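Researcher: Next entry in the queue.
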Amino acid sequence: MRMPTTLLSLVFAAALVAAVVALPGCGSSIPPVSTPAETPAEPDEDFASDPIPEEEPMFSPTYEPTGTEIAVIETSKGVIRFEFFAEDAPNHVASFIELAEAGFYDGTKFHRVEPGFVIQGGDPLSKTDDPMVGTGGPGYRIAAEFNDRNHLDGTVAMARSQDPDSAGSQFYICLGPQPFLDGQYTVFGQVIEGLDIVHSISVGDVMESVRIERAE
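Model: Structure for this entry, 216 residues:
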C-alpha cells in the first residue's frame, strides 16, 4: 500500500527537522544562527564554550582600569580598535587588559564567524588549531557583569557557557544589532575604529597582536 503524498511530505519534513536538531553545536560562545543568517536563533546551550570546570578559580583583578584604555587588535586585514566600558564591567575589562598585556591573545584566531551575527576569538587553543578549539580559556572564570549596554553593530562582549559565571578569554564582536542577547552576556566594549575590518573577518584570521593604548 502506497503512502499518500501529503503524508510522505510530512514524514520527510519531520525527518529533516530531527536531523537539524541533532547536529552538534559549534562549541563556541554564542548561539548558532538559523537560516537565513540574518535571523539569529534564540540563545541556547550552544551559545558558549564548553562549561568551565568548577575547580577553576574566580578571577581576581590585579589591574584597575582607568577609563583611558583602548584595545588595539592588529590583523592582516587591518586594525580594530575598541573602547572599554570599565564602569559597567570592571572585572571583564581588567581581565582583558591583563591578558592582552601578557601577550595572551597574540597569535590567537577568530575561530568562529557567523555572517550577520558575530565573530568570535580569544581561545588559546586556536593558535595550534587544536580540535578542541572553542573550549579553551585563561584558567579562571569571571563572574557575570550583565549590564544595560545593548548589543549593537561592533559591540564587544564576553562568551560564556550556560553558567553565567563561566566567562574567560573568549570574546565576540557583533555584526549588526543583536538585541536578543541584551542582558544575557557581559558587554564590555565597543568598536570605535575598524568596523569595516570586523565585517571582513573570516574564520582563521589571526590576531597578530592585541595591545592596550592609553589616551592622554
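Model: Residues 5-22 form the longest helix (18 residues).
Researcher: Noted, moving on.
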